[in-house]
Amino acid sequence: MLEIAGLQVQLDADAGLVRAIAGMHLALTRGETFALVGESGCGKSMTALALMRLLPENGRIAGGSVLLGGRDLLDLPESRMRQVRGGRIGMIFQEPSTSLNPVMRVGEQIVEAIEAHTELRGKAARAKAIDWLARVGIPEPQRRIDDYPFRLSGGQKQRVMIAIALAAEPDYLIADEPTTALDVTIQAQILDLIRDLQRERQLGVLLITHDLAVVSGMAHRVALMYAGQIIEVAPAAEFFAHPKHPYARLLLQALPEAARRDAPLAAIAGTVPPLWLEFAGCRFAPRCDKAMGHCASTPPALTEQGPRHQVRCLLYSQPGDALSPRETLSP
Ligand code: SF4
Ligand code: MG
């Protein structure tokens, strides 16, 4: 299990101290795809960067832990962390062109991952790299292995990134907007590929996306983030059928049936509050169509509202009254 417990991330910005992640808990098990979804700037990517210890220079982890097999990754020396990163936890990002080394042949980049994280060396590693290119659907892998990245299309580059990430035989994969830069057809192919590899290798996948269609097709569980906090977590089918948080309801309502396939998160009136603010109450209150008098002054806690279903909203509970819903929304 990969577990984030009480994670707090702060950034120094011109406007002041930004609390990018405010006390996050999240557990990812092998064999499941867990989607982290939310508008841009809500803290999804920051969560991934923090857990890989790849925060930008103005960022720091201000509290919490990231447990992998009982060890806190935040305490590991950087040399050990390098083995975890790309070894036990693979990563793929939105822009394959910026992650691939432009002056290294694609095969060498896969071989590098294989040699760094498995027992294979030399010819055996190269043969394995060819296998991987074939496995991720690159035609003529024997020939393409010696190409430089610029010879590949965007979709092929993303396939190569997936090959590099999985060649190290990780237990977990972090995929941050893995298909956002690709056209719809290629997007679907790449998502199918990730789903197949996830099943085949019992990977735990943390899928970061702003696209609910991607979530509904891929995820076993969903966590919805808003302004640096998780505000709803549920099994994916439950989340789509019975969303509870007013923000989740607005997002899902605003997706017209026909557009559900590939619509980004719907526009909801108002904007995400800047995270250098101190929040007295609910962070969503200024945009909430169900806001009550005390919402602006009482911070809601994440409370259990069904099997594996947690919600951060005062409609469902009073502070400290985690298990008895005070009031429920009509469906
Ligand atoms: Fe809306 Fe209040 Fe719930 Fe926040 S706590 S989401 S403002 S109802
Ligand atoms: Mg992002």
From TrEMBL:
Transmembrane regions: none
GO molecular function: ATP binding
Location(s) in or outside the cell: Cell inner membrane
Name this protein carries in UniProt: Peptide/nickel transport system ATP-binding protein
Organism of this sequence: Roseateles saccharophilus
Domain annotation ABC transporter: ranges: 2-252
Phylogenetic lineage: Bacteria, Pseudomonadati, Pseudomonadota, Betaproteobacteria, Burkholderiales
Family: Belongs to the ABC transporter superfamily.
Keywords per UniProt: ATP-binding, Cell membrane, Membrane, Nucleotide-binding, Transport
Topology with respect to the bilayer: Peripheral membrane protein
